[in-house]
């Protein structure tokens, strides 16, 4: 539970500055942006005395509801001006601070082991998975922009955004696939006139991560308002924090080790080291007459000394302290982005309007994972680089982490464009129609700039003496290796630049995703009842999605061992040491959908029912590859009187498998995972691929709640909504290296289907000798799981006047105690309230809150944002035992000071200072048992906590 001081903050009503509003009010020039006022879709009214209001906007999540107060599904509307005042920079980063987005991945969110989409900002509603949150731009589906078909919301232009609507409920019946957990709709200010300029820069408390942002926007109406044009340009530069050692918690190198049993529980380990390798090079085995160098470590170039062991951790291959090696991955990825957006609309007649909008985004992101390394490679005892005093006839095994060599990286250059054009019109008695076409495409080239070429490595490691000094043995027997540069591995900095360049190679793959979408809708009121008009909407959509991958490093490529020498190269040796991706020839899927939605008034102005309305929708979707699906939604809104509103929904939703799920090209990498059978840590080949037999997963959501706006307390409202979501036939990743899958396999003696996800040297699943090590792991996606979760969302708003100045308070809080995941053959797990666990699940605190206070005095505004989470337990798997106490609650404070410049002299602008993590709160150490081998590349803190520390942003905004 939360400590009393956190509950006091929550119940005290310190509220969120960004007032959720479905009827959005533009800030007047005399007001700070944070003082704009609105009425939320939760009927939470915060109206300042000098505000103006727009009485009606189109509500995301429905085609027939025009007023947020009539929506049975909660819709939180975040004006972008207010989002920017909370946290300058990409909109995604401040959205992720809202409690419903637990589990989202942002630039500083554990980018991990050089993952292909490590630099993506990806939204995740209710921690149910990235793919179950539908992202829209002006109501149109945003195409995937990453290699694995996720939507990176950094690709969405934000300079001319008006607001972001967040629907926290199933909406597949309205929008189609992916809207199981909800919808996030980025909406443009289509009537902007004037010029807007934004310039800001930031720097971390430790003097690094110096960011720069520049934005320009222009809007103008012409022909007496019949036409309108607007455009924007944005530049964002963030150098990132590319080494964990740049922070103390990173230098502490936290992991979780142990066996997860009562006798050997999992526990947090500081200063973790991989004990079977080192930065200078470790000779394998123990010293003997045939292996005189066994157990020696080259801690100094060319000088061997006994390897210093650290403290035991309960996991073979890992120690705390000592001479073992570790990695130093990125904390925050580098991101450099250019965005151009333009929009035009024209009223051809009073009843016919046309519009077109287009955007182009060019991104460059960079993230570092592990170091390159060699593991148990064979070297000659007469290697020419080995000092004469150490040489002897025979061979020895050798392991080394190359800290002095370029690290494995994910270096992505990405271009995305989005074009949407359409016509809108009216006919008859209030019938509105809309026809639109969307074309979008994403092109991304992802490189690993330092991938080891195993063929060249094998040649460079076999070093003999020559007339001019050490040379490659291969060069003495074949002219094909005349350019071979011998590699000196005996010491932390022993390798020459030429040798490192010879054994490493840039490999890359290019991903192309496309979307063509033709949609049409007709909305009108065909008849009415005594309670009001019945509004219906008929819509249809036809879209075609494409996907292809071109790779210059195929996983099927094997090293050519002819003339290389007798060591480290055989017929099955992969050509490349790190992840390579197979080429995927172009694939596509066509989707045809049709939907009907209706808003039916039931009662009006009767006792205990000011008005009651029913909302219903149904959709049929046909996917050419994965099949068809029916979805539906029902909802009821009951306005009891001016103070109370009750609402409830029930929906049946779905998510079709993405083209990546279906056709993921085979990925081959060499990674070290803990082998729970032999107890060792041996690098093995990992094969990952798609599954063309996947079918859509389905979700069922029930929600009910109330809104209370007491007439006796003006400008106060509170809403509470409960929800229950169940996902069946869930698409999940099944991986042989998962500790849970391993344990089930070994307990079965080799009969479990999970045993097919690994290959062993001796083919036995009961032999625990080191000779029976894992040679390959397999990972794929299957429709076998189910998930369910439930909880409550609370929203409280209050506006008051203190000393004749406006004060606004708001709280958003989510209670989500359970996220239960059931997979046949494995233990049912509960991710609610847990940290990192199997299947790359993210921390899911049971209680999350975002609370803000905003106070304005004349031209000066002060806003305080508080983010709070409850404690986190270590594991979601009941089969595993942890000895550490749960991770305690955490709270982070942000402060924004804004000064309004003179309208007369400056044209309407403001200067602002934002301080994130005001008190420089350090993250509580947290790590996951599944990633214990990735020492220094993953974990160390809970996603959602702040790993960077205090951060300052100073900027100016002008509007003319």
Based on CA inertia axes, which overall geometry fits?
A: elongated
Major sheet characteristics: 22 strands, antiparallel, barrel
Structural class: mainly beta
- Termini Cα gap: 49 Å
Whole-number mean pLDDT:
87
Record field, number of beta strands? 48
Strand content: over 45%
Bin the helical content.
under 10%
Number of continuous helical runs:
11
Low-confidence stretches: 1-57, 111-116
Radius of gyration: 30 Å
Notes on the structure:
By secondary structure, the protein is mainly beta. The chain is 7% helix and 47% strand. The protein is built from eleven helices and 48 strands. The chain has a 22-stranded antiparallel barrel. Strands 4-7-8-5-6 form a five-stranded mixed beta sheet. A hairpin with a 6-residue loop joins strand 42 and strand 43. It is elongated and about 100 Å long.
Short note summarizing the structure:
This protein is mainly beta and 960 residues long.
Q: What's the helix and strand layout?
A:
Blueprint: H1 4-11, E1 23-24, E2 38-39, E3 45-46, E4 75-79, H2 80-86, H3 91-95, E5 133-137, E6 140-141, E7 161-167, H4 172-175, E8 182-188, E9 194-204, E10 211-222, E11 227-238, H5 248-251, E12 255-257, E13 267-269, E14 272-278, E15 282-283, E16 296-300, E17 303-306, E18 311-312, E19 318-320, E20 324-325, E21 334-349, E22 352-368, E23 373-380, E24 395-401, E25 409-427, E26 431-452, H6 454-461, E27 463-466, E28 469-472, H7 473-477, H8 497-503, E29 504-529, E30 532-551, E31 580-581, E32 584-606, E33 609-623, E34 627-639, E35 644-655, H9 659-663, E36 667-674, E37 681-688, E38 697-708, E39 716-735, H10 739-747, E40 758-760, E41 774-802, E42 805-822, E43 829-830, E44 847-857, E45 860-869, E46 890-900, H11 903-906, E47 909-916, E48 951-959
């Amino acid at each position: 539970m939360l400590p009393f001081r956190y509950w006091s903050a929550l119940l005290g009503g310190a509220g969120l500055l960004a007032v959720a509003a479905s009827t959005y009010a533009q800030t007047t020039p005399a007001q700070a942006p944070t003082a704009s006022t609105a009425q939320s879709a939760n009927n939470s009214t915060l109206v300042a005395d000098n505000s103006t209001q727009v009485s009606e906007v189109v509500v995301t999540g429905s085609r027939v509801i025009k007023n947020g107060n009539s929506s049975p599904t909660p819709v939180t509307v975040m004006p972008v001006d207010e989002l920017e005042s909370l946290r300058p920079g990409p909109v995604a980063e401040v959205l992720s601070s809202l409690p419903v987005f637990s589990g989202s991945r942002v630039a500083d969110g554990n980018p991990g082991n050089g993952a292909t989409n490590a630099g993506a900002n990806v939204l995740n509603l209710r921690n149910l998975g990235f793919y179950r949150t539908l992202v829209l731009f002006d109501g149109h589906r945003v195409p995937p922009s990453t290699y694995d078909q996720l939507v990176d919301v950094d690709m969405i232009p934000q300079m001319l955004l008006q607001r972001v609507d967040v629907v926290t409920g199933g909406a597949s019946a309205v929008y189609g696939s992916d809207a199981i957990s909800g919808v996030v709709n980025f909406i443009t200010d289509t009537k902007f006139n004037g010029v807007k300029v934004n310039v800001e820069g930031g720097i971390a408390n430790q003097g690094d991560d110096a960011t720069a942002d520049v934005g320009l926007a222009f809007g103008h109406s012409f022909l007496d308002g019949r036409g309108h044009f607007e455009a924007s340009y944005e530049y964002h530069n963030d150098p990132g924090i590319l080494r964990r050692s740049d922070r103390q918690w990173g230098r502490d190198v936290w992991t979780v080790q142990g066996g997860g049993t009562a006798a050997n529980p999992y526990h947090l380990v500081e200063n973790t080291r991989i004990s079977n390798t080192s930065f200078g090079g470790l000779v394998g085995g123990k010293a003997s007459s045939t292996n005189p160098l066994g157990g020696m470590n080259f801690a100094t170039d060319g000088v061997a000394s006994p390897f210093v062991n650290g403290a035991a951790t309960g996991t073979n291959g890992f120690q705390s302290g000592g001479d073992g090696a570790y990695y130093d991955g990125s904390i925050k990825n580098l991101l450099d982005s250019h965005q151009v957006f333009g929009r035009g609309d024209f009223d051809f007649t009073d009843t016919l309007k046309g519009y077109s909008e287009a955007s182009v985004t060019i991104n460059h992101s960079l993230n570092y994972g592990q170091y390159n390394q060699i593991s148990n490679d064979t070297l000659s005892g007469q290697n020419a680089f080995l000092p004469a005093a150490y040489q002897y006839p025979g061979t020895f095994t050798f392991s080394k982490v190359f800290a002095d060599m370029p690290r494995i990286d994910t270096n992505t250059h990405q271009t995305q464009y989005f074009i949407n054009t359409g016509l809108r019109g009216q006919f008859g008695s209030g019938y509105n129609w809309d026809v639109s076409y969307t074309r979008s495409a994403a092109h991304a080239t992802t490189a690993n700039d330092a991938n080891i070429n195993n063929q060249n490595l094998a040649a460079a490691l076999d070093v003999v003496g020559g007339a001019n000094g050490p040379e490659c043995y291969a060069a003495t027997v074949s002219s094909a290796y005349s350019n071979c540069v011998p590699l000196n591995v005996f010491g932390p900095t022993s390798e020459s630049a030429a040798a490192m360049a010879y054994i490493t190679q840039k490999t890359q793959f290019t991903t192309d995703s496309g979307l063509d979408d033709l949609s049409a809708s007709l909305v009108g009121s065909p008849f009415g009842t005594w309670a009001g008009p019945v509004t219906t909407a008929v819509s249809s959509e036809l879209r075609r999605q494409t996907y292809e991958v071109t790779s210059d490093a195929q996983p099927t490529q094997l090293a050519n061992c002819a003339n290389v020498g007798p060591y480290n190269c055989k017929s099955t040796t992969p050509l490349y040491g790190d992840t390579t991706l197979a080429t995927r020839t172009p694939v596509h899927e066509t989707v045809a959908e049709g939907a009907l939605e209706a808003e039916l008034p039931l009662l009006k102005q009767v006792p205990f029912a000011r008005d009651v309305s029913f909302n219903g929708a149904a959709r049929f979707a046909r996917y050419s590859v994965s099949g068809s699906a029916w979805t539906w939604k029902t909802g009821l809104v009951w306005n009891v009187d001016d103070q109370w509103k009750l609402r409830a929904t029930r929906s049946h939703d779905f998510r079709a498998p993405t083209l990546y799920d279906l056709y993921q090209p085979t990925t081959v990498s060499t990674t070290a995972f803990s082998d729970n059978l032999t107890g060792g840590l041996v690098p093995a080949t990992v094969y990952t691929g798609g599954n063309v037999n996947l079918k859509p997963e389905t979700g069922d959501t029930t929600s009910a709640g109330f809104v209370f706006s007491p007439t006796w307390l003006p400008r106060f409202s509170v809403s509470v909504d409960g929800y229950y979501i169940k996902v069946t036939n869930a698409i999940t990743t099944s991986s042989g290296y998962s500790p849970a899958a391993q344990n089930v396999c070994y307990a079965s003696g080799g009969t479990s289907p999970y045993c097919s996800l690994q290959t062993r040297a001796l083919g036995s699943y009961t032999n625990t000798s080191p000779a029976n090590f894992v040679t390959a792991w397999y990972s794929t996606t299957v429709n076998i799981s189910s998930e369910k979760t439930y909880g409550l969302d609370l929203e409280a708003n209050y506006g008051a006047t203190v000393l004749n100045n406006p004060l606004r308070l708001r709280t958003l809080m989510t209670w989500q105690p359970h996220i239960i995941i059931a997979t046949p053959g494995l233990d049912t797990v509960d991710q609610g309230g847990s940290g990192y666990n199997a299947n790359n699940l993210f921390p899911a605190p049971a209680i999350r809150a975002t609370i803000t206070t905003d106070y304005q005095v004349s031209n000066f505004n002060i806003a305080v944002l508080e983010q709070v989470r409850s404690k986190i337990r270590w594991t979601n798997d009941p089969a595993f035992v942890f000895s550490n106490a749960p991770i305690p609650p955490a709270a982070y404070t942000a402060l924004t000071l804004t000064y309004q410049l003179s309208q007369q002299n400056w044209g309407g602008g403001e200067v602002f200072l934002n301080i994130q993590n005001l008190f420089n709160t350090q993250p509580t150490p947290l790590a996951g048992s599944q990633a214990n081998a990735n020492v220094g590349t993953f974990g160390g803190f809970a996603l959602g906590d702040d790993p960077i520390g205090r951060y300052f942003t100073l900027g100016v905004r002008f509007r003319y």
